[in-house]
Amino acid sequence: MYFHPTATHRAAAQVGLRHIAGPIFLDFEGIDGLKWPDRIALAKKWPASAAEIGGPFIPLYFMPHSTYTDSPEHLTEVAALGKSMGARVHLHVSETQMENEDVNTRFGKTPTEILRDTKILDLPTVYGHGVHLSDSDIEISLARGASVAHCPGSNLKLNSGIADIMKYKAAGLKVGLGTDGCSSSNDLDMWPVLRLAAHLVSLNHGAKSVDTSSIVRSATIESAEALGLGDRVGSIEVGKEADLIAIDLSALHLTPVHDVFALLVYAVGRSDVSDVWVAGNRVVRNRALSHVDTADLRARVEKRVEALDSLK
């Protein structure tokens, strides 16, 4: 989610990433300079834009920011357009208690109830965060097939709260894992996310309640299913696309291999990943990026930062 989806998606496709992007919707003009009619126009053109860019397959997504930055009228418009185009939806939902209180003060409803009433939940929807879902919210979400993207690192950094993913899963909600953006999850590293998710289950329900295989499933197949990609990726099966990583098990901190799921959740880190394939394309080879000139990239980033510094 967020601004300039065409540019970010083009960059991701150029380096071989499977990057789910889509037009963002806000009531107001953001830093992208787009007004509401411009956002609707971008959404209508997005399938053609994404097809022109190419890259690994992604579903069509619309990304209204939230129920506190998109009016019910605008969300209804997004839902109708999304239904006509076969889109899925991703947006922030109940990330903080303050958000819930603000939305309730303004509209007399929870964010989830607004999504139901504006028909956003008639489309396959992924909640960013979903930290503070009421029992009623969980029931509504389950009935409409919504999923939760749990971002424990971001939630802890921003003091947003702790999502009770065991409660969500017990109710039948699908829970995937994510990092959130780099402003609240600086290095976008998924390995600490697995570890934090497990630790927070332990904190909420006791150490014996932690099921590391469930945590790994949330990071893989359940995330894929939540995103509408479960028939393509998320598990190693004949006929699926090869989104794979190879882990170097020779490091002393990974020796011996006893419980594979515990190893993945509590011991493996990004430095242990030696190779990565996306749709069968090897994008990391022997710990080196295959399609990125890192020296050139670093130089261009530093130049851009210098330009930003001049604005202070």
Automatic annotation (TrEMBL):
InterPro entries, sorted: Amidohydro-rel, Metal-dep_hydrolase_composite, Metal_Hydrolase, MTA/SAH_deaminase
GO MF entries: hydrolase activity, acting on carbon-nitrogen (but not peptide) bonds
Keyword Hydrolase recorded: yes
Record's keyword terms, sorted: Hydrolase
Matches recorded under Pfam families: Amidohydro_1
Stretches of the chain forming a coiled coil according to its record: none
Domain Amidohydrolase-related per the UniProt entry, residue ranges: 61-283
Alphabetized SUPFAM superfamilies for the sequence: Composite domain of metallo-dependent hydrolases, Metallo-dependent hydrolases
Protein's name according to its UniProt entry: Unannotated protein
Organism: freshwater metagenome
